[in-house]
Specification:
By secondary structure, this protein is mainly alpha-helical. The chain is built from four helices and no strands. α3 packs antiparallel against α4. The N and C termini lie far apart (about 70 Å).
Length: about 120
């Protein structure tokens, strides 16, 4: 019983995965409803990972008693965090600018969007 209590969260995770697989097999149309919710969840998760890692490093460094070493580690971690954010943003910008033409024009057809509101 002690092992079951210790691993309850893992078992619930596996149960949720199995439930999602069963729901996807028997009710494939539910993906239309659950897909946007899952995408929002993953986007929020990816946005939160980097700041959580950074602030966990900062709090670990501040718990250190030596102030000279603390400021040295803190300045290096801030520099790495800033450069990582800057480089990843520039990389995303370059990919977005270079590969913009690969997106289908049917989804970005703003020139004919006024025809949607005309009455037949």
């Amino acid at each position: 019983m002690k092992h079951l209590k210790n691993y309850a969260s893992y078992l619930l995770l596996l149960l949720g995965i199995a439930g999602g697989i069963v729901a996807g097999i028997f009710f494939p149309n539910t993906a239309l409803v659950t897909y946007p919710i899952g995408q929002i969840y993953f986007n929020i998760l990816f946005v939160l990972i980097t700041p959580l890692v950074f602030f966990s490093i900062v709090t670990a460094v501040f718990s250190n008693s030596r102030s000279e070493r603390t400021t040295n580690i803190l300045s290096k971690s801030f520099t790495v965090f800033f450069l990582f954010s800057l480089v990843s943003s520039i990389f995303a910008l370059i990919i977005g600018v270079c590969f913009f033409d690969l997106i289908s024009n049917s989804t970005l057809n703003f020139a004919n969007s006024s025809t949607m509101f005309k009455e037949n």
